[in-house]
Queue: 4 jobs
Job 1
Amino acid sequence: MIDRDGLGSFLRHRRESLQPEDVGLIRGQRRRTTGLRREEVAGLCHMSTDYYARLERGTGPHPSEQMVTSIAQGLHLTLGERDHLFRLAGYTPPQRGTTSEFVSPGLLRILDRLADTPAEIITEVGDTLRQTPLGLALFGDASHRTGPDRSIGYRWFTDPTAREAYPPEEREQLSRVYASGLRQLVALRGPGSRAAELAALLQHNADFRSIWDTQEVGVQPPEVKRFLHPTVGRLALNCQTLLDPDQSHRLLVYTAVPGSDSHQKLHLLSVIGTQTISS
């Protein structure tokens, strides 16, 4: 059963304890509010201000589990705080561990500070969970994907458009990278895992089977990742990875050598990409 008073008090306390910089927002010069404004939190949680305000007052409807998840991420809650929020809302907290899609507040804070950089947070099987605006402009919007298609490794073998973003000379190596990485995950997580499910689905793909049967593991991607963007053309980017060991989430940050052609193209993409997203 939902604890409306407890839920409202908890939401209000968390909102007032956060500052704009904590969640990637800009602090105005005349700001007088303690913590975040309700409309700011509502925007972060993808809901109306009125809906969120009613939850804080204890007069709102019973939020769905999906809505509670959105609130937990918008408020940058820790796993313990997220579980508490779910219990206040009358639900059993989601499972923790490598199958969880709840992004830790530490990774979110870093991602919030990378607004001018292509970056994304992915799961161990390549599901994209969060993207910066420039990451979205570079790779496309991942939020609409569902089911197995959320995994870049799965799409690589089943969706021809997934390979179009990479130069032809890079594709064979990347096929080996995705297949060998999936094989390692199947051995690590076991037969009932998401990795095993994806591997089973991909057995219907001849290209995947031919590489899978070579039994390769540990194949590494190129040090410099090359992309073919439909607007700015070829890009050569370095990729730095930050790992959340508790949930095996990875924050991937893409950078170009200062002064290089790719660096200039990223700057161009930051302008036209934002315009495209806004339109």
Note: The mean pLDDT is 91.
Job 2
Amino acid sequence: MTDLTETTPAEDLVSAPFFLRGEVLHGTDVIQTSRDLGVTFATPRIPFDRAVPPRTEVPPLLNVPLAEIIDFLVETGQRMVAKDNDHMQECIERMCRTHILPRAVVEHTARHAAAYLDKRTLMAEVEQNFPDPRALDEWIPKQDYTGRKSFVRAFAPRLIHVLPGNSPGVAVKSVAQGSMVKAINLFKMSSADPFTMVAILRTMADIDPQHPIVKSMSAVYWRGGDDATERVLYRPQYFDKIVAWGGGDAINNVIKYLGPGFQLVSFDPKTSISMVGKEAFGDDETLDRVADLCSADVMTLNQEACVASRYQFVEGPQEQVDRFCERLHHHIARRAAESGDIRKLDPEMREAVEMMSMMDDEFGVWGRTDGKGLVVRSEEPVDFHPINKTANVVRVDSLDDAVKWINVATQTVGFYPIDRMADYRDRLAAGGAQRIVHLGEAGPSTIGNPHDAMYPLHRFVHWMAHEDGCAPSGN
């Protein structure tokens, strides 16, 4: 991060404005650098007095009925995909300058993200997270078995959201969830995407600049780990919780500020896998179909998403597993070509794979390190983190042997065949896995289901109890 100087012409910079509770703040005061591509972009300085509302202020959304909030979110989703929405169009143009994914993937993901703002989807999220959703709108009377009375409410929290840069969908989901729990929200945008959240909020402001949702939202950018900024914002006198997405560095930056009254809700780094049983080798048609399903999981968001499969545990002798690897590589390469993604592997991974290609007895390699799709077959998971259209097929004699590689960082397990899933789900959960799905269905999820082994909205709110009566004497 550096100050703008005369040697950096403003017209050459991508500008990333801020949004502060209904107002857009433009400026090129600070030069920032995107994490993945090293592209520079300019932002204003953060006006802390405008980004942090005082604790004495009742949250603007507190007494707005949930039904009204959802209606506004639905209207926002419709406006996001409207052809005349200049905010979203401009957002995509700018994001293509800073994002690692190709334009076609960015555009598709941005359009698809708005589908989350559907009334049925939003209501399902609330109903699954709260046994009694009325707690978001009112104080719910309670009485225990002793006769003692109280009222309980899911009170509007104050949240800082540390957003990832891999998908605009997280921005859409975060603004919806922050609205439904009636929070005061400060969104820290990612250097890979310092645009989507502001575009969403500007779309909302066009609908109604005075709406309490608009007045509850701010979006800014600072470099993660910037102590001068984070020691100001990450305080319990200003916020209740940090909702953090992202890699290990992003989570570690947050942890050091935690303390009494200031909590972390973490969507921390996860690794997803595939488990393929010997049934895949029934005939050539089945083998090709299963390999294609597996490639769909590998290539979810071009392998940038947590649900994207990194390791594929395949049950069978080496000769058959090698046949699977050949078909898997074919389908990964096809999907990569269709997306227009030609990113090459990073130098360290490229060197590791090239070394493996010379060790025929231990490894098999299909494809090259040119970013067009790659499969590495091994007897144990490789040491590097497979990414950028790279699959690591681990041959196992039995899927039972794959279970030992499950841990608390294992998010999604894509499984084939379907009729063996129930035999493994308890063992996968015991190992730490959080989700098991049909092979090929890692991307979509059942609406309202837990995310990363929790119900997020239930974690976001500030649960408040109002005790209002003593138990009868003698109890």
Note: DSSP finds 14 helices and 21 strands in the chain.
Job 3
Amino acid sequence: METTSFCISFFSLLLIIFFLFYYYCYRGQHSIDGKEGAPAPPGRWGWPVVGESLEFLSNGWKGEPEKFIFSRMSKYSSSVFKTYLLGEATVVMCGSDSNKFLFSNENKLVQAWWPSSVDKIFPFSKLQTSSNEEAIKMRKMLPNFLKPEALRQYVGIMDHITGKHFASEWENKDAVHVFPLTKKLTFWLACRIFINVEDPGEVAGLAKHFDVLATGILSVPIDLPGTPFRRAIKASNQLRKELIKIINQRKIDCSRLTKASEDILWHMLNTADDNGTYMNELDIADKILGLLVGGHDTASSACAFIVKYLIDLPHVYHGVYQEQMEIAELKGQGELLNWDDVQKMKYSWCVACEVLRLVPPLQGTFRQALTDFTFNGFSIPKGWKLYWNAHSTHKNPEFFSEPEIFDPSRFEGRGPAPYTFVPFGGGPRMCPGKEYARLEILVFIHHLVKRFRWEKLIADEEIVVNPFPVPANGLPVRLFPHNHRI
């Protein structure tokens, strides 16, 4: 009898807790629906507390992230629907009009948003700023470092590093796992171009901490000993120490560096803000760390999937091979690629863009509403999160006919309509590293196809999205070297 009473009391308590969570985290959201006299977007909140986060994430784990988007676009609205993701009331924005609205209203109606856990891994504590504020500063600085004029000098460096990478990691191998190698290459390129670190041993030392950091960013934010999140915080602190050593040494060396030795760190050390103030070492270390994170996983994912599609489509491989060999045959022995060579890689870039359309490295990002506003007749309350995603246009037959078909010709001539192809975002928040990514992807393609043909070792390898798309088994391939001299 006592056991029965205890069970009843226990389950009653659970029901009360469940109801309170439901009311606070779920029903409470309805109290702010319909501001400005407009209805809330259609949709559902999902389960109390977790909302629809599990379905949102599990679709990515299964390699079909667009399923969450398109099922709700079909059921609720083709342009906007509400849900509850990652503990936040969220409006998912879909289609080219939504992309244009969000990108055009950056820091007016919306601003970029990241979970608060990001600030623990990237603590900008010295200046008491947040990751959002730091991102705004970076976006003002980066165009000067990553505009085409500045990047011209990096083409030869990228070619040199990529050649060394293929010589040490691909050549004389019967088979390789592609994705770990593309990660290694893009990190090596970032270290060389951002901070002038080229020695493989030194790069590997930084990569060791960086891999722990990257894993922790995607983990559950539980700050307890032994958790991936705690390890990521420690790795972040260790990387800062290493970067500050490099920065201090660079300050000593700056007076001896020539124009040809300039890299992004050199520019940061020698560029003052509007008030004539130069950044301190910790500030620069934070920004370099952010650049390494931002420029690493996206490019490595794109390069890996280019390898996959070139295997699957021999006629596309042939077109890329012909273009790249025409360039290679005009180069002298040991002569590096230059800016003009990259501009000739038009078909290769169309192929890369089609890969980015089908498997966008950046699935989407979050914004936060700065004020109450309406969109397409629906009310968006201040403080709500907004999620834009690439799939709602990339795989939508309204914008790309037969969207599952691989067709590089979509990007010839004027290309897709504005705000439909958005692997790098758009408008004022267009990724400032777009041109940098284009260069490293094209240089990678050049070295890949002039050296090898290849075949997959796993016929139907799954794609996992968490949050970047990656081949589930690292994309193992068997290599067949070309016989001609390169």
Note: Residues 13-32, 125-130 have pLDDT under 50 and may be disordered.
Job 4
Amino acid sequence: MENYTVKDIARPSGGFAMLAVDQREALRLMFTAAGMKHEDQDLTNFKVNAAKILSPYASGVLVDNQFCYKQIVEQKAIAPNSAMIVAADKFIPGNGIPVDSVCIDTEIDPHKARENGAKALKLLVLWRQDEDPEQRLEMVKEFNQICHSAGLVSIIEPVVRPPRVGDKFDREQAILAAAKELGDSGADLYKGEMPLFGKGNSAELLSAAQKLNDQINMPWVILSSGVDANLFCRSVRIAMQAGASGFLAGRAVWSSVIGLPDTELMLKDISVPRLQHLGTIVDEIMASK
């Protein structure tokens, strides 16, 4: 059995232009806010259609077990030139938010995922300064072993949250602390948050992204949650100039079509060109490195 490597989820340029459709209750909230039908099947239909329409332009597509993994496999929704990445994280709601804590999803069999065409698994890791770092590191270690036992690529996604107790929270410092803790944890790819939400001037952003790069001892990409879709292209450019190798993003690609009529047509007219443009940015910067 060959072991997949990060090259198997990258573009020919070596950069990553990956699409996320693994949002769960957060997507339902988006549908609800837009006045759309938001039953489970509505979410599944959107995810499968997004995978079918957008995967030809993505080096990988991240899917979730709750709403679309099985359906995407059955319908062969991901283009042959794109790699399937399966979210192996179970979201636990609480305290009024859809994701209050996370554990490894034991329903995901890595060997079966590989048989189904997966080349990588992804794990969300919530980072709070007042929670035990050893527990996080142990979870990541277990996740890496699960991935590597099946020859799959291990992608970790540290996302920072305010502490459970007290209200002091410096997001930018937390992002750096999370990267310092988990950036050399044996995973194959680090999916990180964009410093400063991608706002501010380019020099500030570049400096912040370079500080993040200094903490990560593996290839890394940025996610788009929290970044204005209109600023995301610039965020990818700056993060890559600082040392990142691309992106794994959902909202920046497709969130603007939610609530519009003719969703499939809007995915083709709005989201495809956006994803193509992002892929071009990735290739350009990889070529200049």
Note: The chain has a mean pLDDT of 97.
